[in-house]
Write a structure and sequence with these properties.
The complex is a heterodimer of chains A (about 700) and B (about 60). Chain A contains 30 helices and no strands. Chain A is mainly α and about 700 residues long. Chain B is built from 3 helices and no strands. Chain B has helices at about 1-20, 25-35, 45-55. Classes of the chains: A mainly alpha (about 700), B mainly alpha (about 60).
């Protein structure tokens, strides 16, 4: 009887969740309310948390509440501090949530909301949250060491270096693709450019304030900064309406690219307190605030989904990104379902702050469920927009043609109702000249968020404000990521190159730092520029590369976790990590292979190379290239992308090999071979000494 | 009731500060007094600067 009542709540959740999913499944051809998706998702999360994460905590890992954590062992009040479970949850969530879960689902909506929703839910329960939880556990039992360190100590020094190189390239691709999202959102948009540009002087003012006027008072300065930001959005509207000022803030993609590259270099050599730290306050609080507001908004407005559950583009011919549902849907939605980058956070600051090992379940597994919920909300925001407008915003210009008329024509031929007036009036409502071909997720999400927020506050007259609020909130934390990422990349580079040229390694030398920073900016700047001039619109090329690399990092983290389970002699539970590893390897290796060798030039890099080479041989120019030099540039770019895909494949295959070897050795050993810190053995040693 | 509210407010403030990499200053001071009474304790301003450098200067990654 006791067990019956214990499971009563679970049973209710199961019934409600199954009903919601059933409702979604049976409502073909009609629009459904977004709340059904939210209810289904929340029930899935609660059941998974209540049962699956408990199983992992108790049976797979045997979390031990009596074991001292690094926060106690190394307590210094600074890096290592035993921290309240809920406070640490906030810290961890703020560190893992970024642009990824917002952009991927928006791009994936081209296949309809159903495939994306199912992958987000299944992926997070069986792969993403499992990875975050296990890495947090492994790192907590090893003094909070980093992923690279853990790979080195558990798998060996060679795979350690391979993983470090892989992580650096992943970082470069992430920075390039994030910067590309900003470029796509700000191109030809004086309102957006003014507002985002204004954040730089605002942040510098905040930096000076917290340094000299009222040192360390981040609460009050964040409030002041927030008010200034809202004024900047209103000011942007005035700028865009003014005939003298608007042209001064109107830039095309290439100009914005060079500005971002310059910005990235300058921002990452300035002292951190001046620009990076204060903008981080703004972006973090705005991010959390906007996510909460979006959740409240969806619950309050309860919008109808206009996107069909499944569109005709599940056949792989979609304009937003190319490739079949398998494997490319599972690459497109990375963060929100499973994200390798989280392994770096789960082995970063969080394990050093955890008060009790058992909290890892709530923080690791629960934190990732929360991030997945953000992805579900992004999917909802993209699906409440008219599908015709969604496709106008996310298809490349080369497909849509130059005007609203041609775009409406093309999209109507795909079977989605849209008129040129709808496109121009939507653009006018959000205060932009045009919304056509703005791939990258941010503008689409901004239109969706503006629709939700304007119902709650201010009506249609406020659409422009809310649209630019959403753009600002994404651009802010993307710029913070670009700045912080460039610094992190610089340190990695100095570490890697320092083995060959010791002078570069000296992080106190101004020249060494400048060279490493310039190299790092040049690397991501190259991919960014390539994305801006890309014939398929950039996102089409770079987002799959990002997805593949991010999922491969997840596979590396899961291989590490599998090896640790084998070393603990828990191999009978290794399916918990092996199943998602196998799935991720199937997706990423297939996708990587197709990106290199597929015969369709929209998918395969080498096919694109031969298409342009053949045109060159015939003496023709293919759009968007206007000169022979640009033709050569596009060929070279695609060759580099193909090389990068091969590199990622080699990284993951070699780590897999080392992982298999590690598992086999541990399996043959008679005793557990795991080397943990702070367990009963260590306590016994301390007692003896 | 008001006690609970002020406790909640305290935790929210702590969470917000830790989100941007600033741990609790009082906890730090208490830790230094108990564990290292012989060593100097940083003022809030020094503590704030030290944490800023540690969060951003060391080159730790941020998520996508």
């Amino acid at each position: 009887m006791a067990s019956l009542t214990r499971h009563a709540l679970g049973a209710v959740l199961a019934v409600v969740g199954a009903s919601a999913l059933g409702y979604i499944a049976l409502n073909r051809g009609e629009t459904i309310n977004a709340l059904w998706i939210v209810i289904a998702a929340v029930c899935v999360y609660l059941i998974a948390y209540r049962y699956y994460s408990l199983f992992i905590a108790d049976k797979v890992m045997s979390l031990d509440p009596n074991r001292t954590t690094p926060a106690y062992r190394h307590n210094d009040g600074l890096d290592y501090v035993p921290t309240n479970k809920y406070v640490l949850f906030g810290h961890h969530f703020a560190a893992i949530a970024g642009a990824g879960p917002l952009v991927g689902p928006v791009l994936a909506a081209q296949m309809g909301y159903l495939p994306g929703m199912l992958w987000i839910l299944a992926g997070v329960v069986f792969a993403g949250a499992v990875q975050d939880f296990l890495v947090l556990f492994v790192s907590t039992r090893r003094d909070g060491r980093s992923l690279g360190d853990l790979v080195k100590s558990e798998l060996g020094p060679v795979p350690g270096v391979i993983a470090l190189f892989g992580t650096f390239m992943i970082m470069v691709i992430i920075l390039a693709v994030l910067a590309l999202i900003v470029v796509k959102a700000l191109a030809e948009s004086p309102w957006g450019t003014f507002t985002v540009g204004a954040t730089i002087p605002i942040a510098i003012f905040m930096g000076l304030y917290t340094r000299y006027i009222r040192p360390g008072q981040i609460g009050e300065i964040s409030v002041i900064g927030f008010v200034l930001l809202m004024l900047a959005i209103l000011g942007g509207g005035q700028v865009a309406a003014s005939e003298t000022w608007a042209p001064l803030f109107t830039f095309n993609g290439r100009q914005l690219t060079w500005m971002l590259i310059g910005y990235g270099f300058v921002a990452s050599v300035l002292p951190v307190w001046l620009l990076l730290a204060p903008r981080d306050y703004l972006s973090t609080f705005l991010k959390i605030g906007a996510i909460v507001a979006l959740a409240v908004g969806i619950a309050f407005v309860a919008p109808e989904l206009k996107m069909p559950s499944v569109t005709r583009f599940i056949d792989g011919t979609g304009p937003v990104w190319a490739g079949n549902l398998f494997p490319f849907l599972f690459i497109t939605i990375a963060c929100g379902a499973v994200s390798g980058f989280h392994a770096l956070i789960s082995s970063g600051t969080t394990p050093k702050l955890i008060e009790n090992e058992t909290h890892a379940r709530f923080i690791g597994y629960g934190g990732m469920l929360m991030e997945s919920f953000v992805a579900i909300m992004a999917l909802v925001a993209a699906s409440i927009i008219e599908p015709g407008i969604y496709f106008a915003m996310n298809s490349p210009l080369a497909v849509l043609g130059p005007t609203a008329e041609t775009a409406a024509q093309v999209i109507s031929n795909w079977g989605f109702v849209v008129t040129p007036e709808m496109l121009t009036s939507t653009a006018a409502a959000v205060g932009e000249h045009s919304i056509i071909a703005r791939a990258g997720g941010a503008p689409t999400l901004a239109v969706g968020m503006a629709q939700i927020f304007s119902v709650m506050f201010g009506g249609t007259g406020m659409m422009g404000f809310w649209y630019h609020f959403a753009i600002l909130f994404e651009a802010l934390f993307i710029l913070t990521a670009v700045d912080a990422g460039t610094r992190a990349g610089r340190f990695m580079l100095q570490d890697l190159l320092g083995t060959a040229i010791p002078a570069i390694k000296r992080t106190d030398s101004w020249v060494g730092n400048a060279i490493a920073t310039a190299l790092c900016v040049a690397t991501w700047g190259y991919f960014l520029y390539q994305g801006v001039i890309d014939p398929l619109g950039g996102i089409n090329t770079l987002w799959p590369l990002f997805g593949i690399s991010n999922q491969m990092l997840a596979a590396v983290a899961l291989v590490l976790a599998t090896v640790v389970l084998f070393k603990m002699k828990r191999e009978r539970f290794a399916w918990v990590t092996l199943a998602p590893t196998v799935w991720l390897l199937a997706c990423t290796l297939t996708a990587g292979w197709q990106k290199v060798f597929d015969a369709n030039p929209k998918v395969g890099f080498l096919a694109q190379v031969s298409r342009y080479q053949a045109a060159l041989d015939r003496g023709e120019l293919l759009a968007p290239a206007k000169t022979v030099d640009q033709m050569h540039q596009i060929i070279l770019n695609n060759q580099i992308d193909a090389g990068l895909s091969v590199f990622f494949i080699l990284v993951v295959v070699s780590i897999l090999g080392y992982g298999a070897q590690g598992c086999y050795r541990a399996y043959r050993a008679a005793h557990p071979t795991t080397r943990e810190v702070g367990g009963p053995e260590a306590a016994a040693q301390r007692a003896a000494a | 009731m008001f006690n609970d509210l002020s406790k909640l407010g305290k935790y929210l403030g702590q969470a917000a500060r830790l989100m941007v990499g600033l741990p609790d200053y009082d906890t730090y001071v208490a830790h230094m007094k108990v564990t290292h009474p012989d060593r100097p304790v940083m003022s809030y301003e020094e503590f704030f600067r030290e944490r800023q450098e540690a969060r951003y200067g060391g080159g730790s990654g941020r998520c996508c």
